[in-house]
Amino acid sequence: MFIDGLFVCGLGFVLIHFLKWGFTHLPGENWQMLAVVPRRKDGQNLWQGTNFTYYGFFLATSQVLAILLFIVLLAAMYGSIYGGLLIALIIFSCCIPAARLVARVVEKKRHTFTIGGASFLGVLLAPWVVLGVESLLADRGCFLPAIPVLAAMSIAYTLGEGLGRLGCISFGCCYGKPLKNCHPLLQRLFARKNFVFHGATKKVAYEGHLLGEQLIPVQAMTCVVYTCGALAGTFLFLFGRFTEALLLTIFLTQLWRILSETLRADFRGFGRISAYQKMGVVSALYMLAATLFIPPSGYIDPEIVNGIDKLWDPGLILALQLLWLVSFLVFGRSTVTTASVSFDLVRKHL
Fold first, then answer.
1. Nearest to residue 190, comparing CAs of 156, 218, 216?
2. Tell me: the pLDDT tens digits for 334-343?
3. How far is CA 60 from CA 118, 297, 334, in A?
4. Which member of 77, 142, 251, 267 has the greatest number of CB atoms within 10 A?
5. pTM score, whole prediction
6. Sequence-ordered list of residues with C-beta below 8 angstroms from that of 307, at least 6 positions apart, any chain
7. For residues 221 and 30, what is the distance between their CA atoms, to the nearest angstrom?
8. How far is CA 105 from CA 63, 108, 124, 284, in A?
9. CA–CA distance, 124 with 293 (Å, rounded to integer)
10. 128 — alpha (psi -120 to 50), left (phi > 0) or beta?
């Protein structure tokens, strides 16, 4: 129990400082573009370039950290690591394309992503994928009890989406309402804790025209709520409270999605109640129903030391690096900004 508590507290300590750094620096103009890759020459010494963003960096990093936590929790209960990775691969293969497709359907925009839409599809698929992989690998002795695996996935998703909001701060998307237009109580509450974005290429500038305005820090609030939820879920999981961990993280993330949309100023689709809010309600009720119909697992006593020990696998490390690279290339390549790059010699060094 002491080791479990130490793990959760240590993880929380690291994440708190990471989030604090992000809230302080990422609204700045210099934290949107990570790199520019020259594509074609346009003039004598000018190149047209493709921008790669910190949005992609933080999204890819949050996904890998979520998978890491999923693996640790899975291994802590002596579950099959490679069975778990197969589950994650199937769901990622469906959800990554859905991030753009759902945004196109709901928001009528081609050059954007929706993590909410992708996660909704993931929630719908998760019970069936887990049960399918469990049945497929049962003859090979793979231990993949459905409810604990779903709980580990939900905790990992909660952490991943929470940390992924740092990318939203960097790109200036998912932004909150102007503080001056909010209720006086919200104005007092966020008078000193708000976001002011800088940089004409951030989404909050070209879509919301809110550059330099004090905004409700809804992305930061989501980071904190989800990260705390993931830590609480991890604590419950390590004490064998799998159903409670699953329902806590699912209800927290989906209900917060419904509430947080009322604090956002970005376009969320047509209608007074957004499609994403409806997805949140359906996701929570769907997973509640899944816990009622899926048979509970027997007694399992997770050991976090065993989970951490399983991370030192060369194949696993390479797979996670590949996942990061693919995710960064998919989400990091900006299709709404461009760049002009020139190259010159440093004369004094010749």
1. 216
2. 888 888 888 8
3. 15, 32, 14
4. 77
5. 0.90
6. 71, 72, 73, 74, 75, 76
7. 22
8. 24, 5, 18, 22
9. 15
10. alpha
